[in-house]
Design brief:
It is a single chain. This protein has 403 residues and is of the alpha/beta class. 45% of the residues lie in helices and 12% in strands. The chain has three domains: 126 residues, Response regulator (Rossmann fold), CATH 3.40.50.2300; 112 residues; 136 residues, Rossmann fold. It is built from 17 helices and ten strands. Strands 2-1-3-4-5 form a five-stranded parallel β-sheet, sandwiched between helices. It is globular. The two termini are 32 Å apart.
Length: 403
């Protein structure tokens, strides 16, 4: 059952969220201030934090910064729970590290509120397109002509974008510049090189000087940011306008895209699940991430039994990322069952765990693991480790044909 942490000091709003959340199968925990919410995050990391900013004592931005600064919670998804009529709050929350926006106005439309939560919670499990968007620079993408740049800037003046307010738009564009630059955070000078002086549009001179594919990547990154903030359906008109400006490259945000590889992640820690999603989002090719949260569910998925019996979306994983410390069945027990089945004997298994006990390392290799890695405590190191794993096992290593 997905866990939602609601941080909201208004009792009426909290009551509505708790009822709507439980009706859609969420385990809802409510806290009314930053201090108690942070204690809750440390004790039992949720799958999503739904965060009001105007709280008694410390503002919600303080919780964002604490979550992002701690290595074991840095990857937790945070959705601002605000009114779009307060763009300064939206900009402040996003700048502090929030990922999504859920408008409080949606509480008047329960079905729409629940759909938005489902979209966010499902984004990393193949249930929605948000988390599998490609926005890095690709040298094979064509560069739009100068008139295409004008069209791109007209799309950035779409009413849906303008209603966000200048502060939010500037932040969206700067985030997009970072994504289009392969995830490296640009300095002020780099962002200024891509954007006009007011920070609200792209400098048309970029088409003549930028590397091939950079402008299309920037447009896709802007579309991704807007999809995260507004939702897939609400952001569609402006995403369509952005796509038209650059000729709709393959893998455009919101389009169905068949992933070349499937990775099965067996992990019960929500923070580590989200970190893994974020790292794989930056891969050089789309990856379908299949998430199971305990050892028995992993076995059920692989053997197509239990809740996965007769699944029409089942896919043989190309790689398994396996934690050792799991509920119901341990990681070693999962590994032993996997290796006992002919179909899975050649599937690479990388054990990612907090344990560095020599006996665990020995036992796991003996049971058939291909690699054993201690989980880095630093978020950036974790991202780099996952990039290396993905590149080696899915792009470099040769595996038996047909496996």
């Amino acid at each position: 059952m997905p866990r939602l942490l609601l941080v909201e000091d208004a009792p009426d709003a909290a009551l509505i969220v708790e009822r709507l959340g439980r009706r859609m199968g969420l385990e809802v925990t409510h806290r009314a201030d930053v201090a108690s919410a942070w204690d809750c995050v440390r004790q039992a990391p949720p799958d999503l934090i739904l965060l009001d900013l105007n709280l008694p004592g410390e503002r919600g931005e303080a919780l964002c910064r604490r979550v992002r600064a701690a290595p074991d919670t840095a990857g937790l998804p945070i959705a601002l729970f605000v009114h779009w009529g307060c763009p300064e709050d939206v900009a402040s929350g996003l700048d502090a590290g929030a990922d999504y926006v859920v408008s409080k106005d949606l509480l008047a439309r329960p079905a729409a509120w629940q759909a938005r939560l489902r979209e966010i919670l499902g984004s990393g499990d193949g249930l929605a397109p948000i988390a599998s968007i490609r926005c890095q620079r690709n040298d094979l993408l064509p560069q739009p002509p100068l008139q295409g740049m004008d069209t791109l800037n007209r799309a950035l003046h779409h009413p849906l974008v303008r209603q966000l307010g200048p502060d939010v738009v500037r932040l969206v564009l700067r985030r997009a510049v970072r994504c289009a630059g392969n995830g490296t955070a640009p300095g002020a000078g780099e962002a200024d090189r891509w954007l006009q002086r007011d920070g609200l549009a792209v400098d048309v001179r970029l088409a003549a000087t930028a590397p091939a594919g950079a402008v299309a990547a920037l447009a896709a990154a802007v579309a991704e940011q807007l999809q995260r903030l507004l939702g897939t359906e609400a952001s569609l008109p402006v995403r369509e306008a952005l796509a038209a400006a650059v000729g709709r490259p393959s893998g455009w945000p919101g389009e169905p895209m068949k992933a070349a590889h499937a990775i099965l992640l067996v992990e019960d820690n929500p923070a580590d699940i989200e970190i893994t999603r974020r790292a794989l989002r930056e891969s050089a090719a789309p990856v379908e991430l299949i998430v199971v949260r305990d050892g028995q569910e992993a076995v059920d998925y692989l053997l197509r039994q239990g809740s996965h019996a007769g699944s029409t979306t089942w896919r043989l994983p190309d790689l398994v990322l396996l934690d050792l410390n799991l509920p119901r069945l341990t990681g070693r027990e999962v590994l032993e069952r996997l290796r006992a089945t002919e179909e899975f004997r050649s599937v690479p298994v990388v054990v990612l765990t907090t344990s560095k006990r020599p006996e665990d390392v020995r036992d796991v290799y003996g049971a058939g693991a291909n690699t054993y890695i201690e989980k880095p405590q630093d978020f950036r190191q974790f991202v780099e480790v996952l990039r290396t794993i993905r590149h080696y096992w899915l792009d470099t290593a040769l595996l038996p044909p047909g496996e």
